[in-house]
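One such shown below:
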Amino acid sequence: MLRAQNVVKCYAGAERPAVDHVDLQVGAGEFVSIVGRSGSGKSTLLHILSSLIRPDSGSVFFRGRDICSAPESLRNRLRHRDFAVVFQQRHLLPYLSALENVLLPFMDGFTPVGAERLETGRGLLRRVGLEGKEASRPGELSGGEQQRVAIARALIRGARALFADEPTGSLDYATGESVMELLGGLNAEGLTIIMVTHNEEFAGRTGRVLRMSDGRII
């Protein structure tokens, strides 16, 4: 489903590449975790794979098409439709309800969200264990509940692959474990997940663990 070939990314002033000639393949339906110390390049690699940033050289193929050389309009459509990204910081809007945050990708400020999309949003909140919390604002939710809202929002357009950058990094162990159970359930339903994490135990629950050091998969 996703293949990185000889990917390199350098940042100005750095002694060595953040990502150094990485090759990687991820099959549809896999749950892959990427671990490594801070500065090992794992988040940069995730951002390249999810098309958030372009590598300096090399290619990333999604279903056979090189998305690194694709025009920005196609990359935007890819992020809009096929890819979903979840960060450690949930980036929820504090003045919107949980349901409104989930539906944010459909909001343009002028056209009301239709009944079908409203029901899709409610269904996703039920799917992530937040039934009854639709009207709650982020400040009324726990950290784990906020992360579940962020995951539901990421999936609102039916993404084929979820890229999670330290999704449990700011959570206590029990809350992080509940988020991992949610991700495991989504993966069991067929969602492809690539996750960056510092937590070795959580990484061990995924189907495959990749370890990075100095920009390379070791």
User: Anything to note?
Assistant: Residues 5 and 59 are 5 Å apart (CA to CA). The radius of gyration is 17 Å. The chain has a mean pLDDT of 90. Strands lie at 2-9, 19-26, 31-35, 57-62, 65-66, 83-87, 161-165, 192-196, 208-213, 216-217.
